[in-house]
Hints:
This protein is mostly helical and about 110 residues long. The chain has helices at about 5-30, 55-65, 70-80, 85-100; strands at about 35-45, 45-50. Strand 1 and strand 2 form a beta hairpin. The radius of gyration is 20 Å and the shape is flat.
Amino acid sequence: xxxxxxxxxxxxxxxxxALIRSNSCxxxxxxxxxxxxxxxxxxxxxxxxxxxxxxxxxQRVMDHPAIPDDIKTALREQPAELNPxxxxxxxxxxxxxxxxxISVTSIVRHRF
Length: 112
């Protein structure tokens, strides 16, 4: 049996899950571009990597030819009603709640 207290940890898990489902996921998919690997080849001892231009997952879906137009029109309405600054503020507020429930000991190191 474990002697750890799991009450605050379970509360943090539910808050974290709510954060990911409500704000973090739309923020990542609509407003955070990422690189996708186009080519990777070996040049002697080094690997040379070439990437596609950075795009958000939303842009990749909208540019894909196999996605039907009715789905694309439904997806076009979502970013128009979302504001990245309000989503980011909501994420920061929820992270503040998560970090307020964590007890900091002398063993924990902080990165600033």
